[in-house]
Write a structure and sequence with these properties.
mainly beta
Length: 114
C-alpha cells in the first residue's frame, strides 16, 4: 500500500517563498513519476510540475519560479516555490504514478495574499 504525505503549505504574501514536501511510504521502484498538481476553488485540478528519473516538466505559469526535486531514494519529492503570486493560491496535491496506478496525497493549502 502506497501512501503520500504532504507538508509545507501555508499563508504567505506575494513575492515570498514556500517549500512543499511529499514522502511516499511503501516499497516501490524508483522508476516512477512524481509530481505536484493544484486545484484552486472553482477550477479543475492542473499540473504544476513532474519529475521522472531524469526529466522534469513544468506548467508554463510556474516556469522560472518553481523547482521540483527528489531524493536519491526516489520516495520524497519537494517543490520550491519562489516569487509566489496570488494566482498560485490553491490546494496542492502530491502525485505518484506507479505501474499505471495513480496515487494522491491529501492536499496542502497554499494561500498567497496580495
Amino acid at each position: 500500500q502506497v501512501q503520500l504525505v504532504e507538508s509545507g503549505g501555508g499563508l504567505v504574501q506575494a513575492g515570498e517563498s514556500l517549500r512543499l514536501s511529499c514522502t511516499a511510504s511503501g516499497s516501490f521502484t524508483r522508476r516512477n513519476v512524481m509530481g505536484w498538481y493544484r486545484q484552486a476553488t472553482g477550477k479543475q485540478r492542473e499540473l504544476v510540475a513532474l519529475i521522472g528519473t531524469e526529466t522534469t516538466d513544468y506548467a508554463e505559469s510556474v516556469k522560472g519560479r518553481f523547482t521540483i526535486s527528489r531524493d536519491n531514494a526516489g520516495n520524497t519529492v519537494q517543490l520550491q516555490m519562489n516569487s509566489l503570486k496570488p494566482e498560485d493560491t490553491a490546494v496542492y496535491y502530491c502525485h505518484l504514478k506507479l505501474v499505471g496506478v495513480n496515487y494522491w496525497g491529501q492536499g496542502t493549502q497554499v494561500t498567497v495574499s496580495s
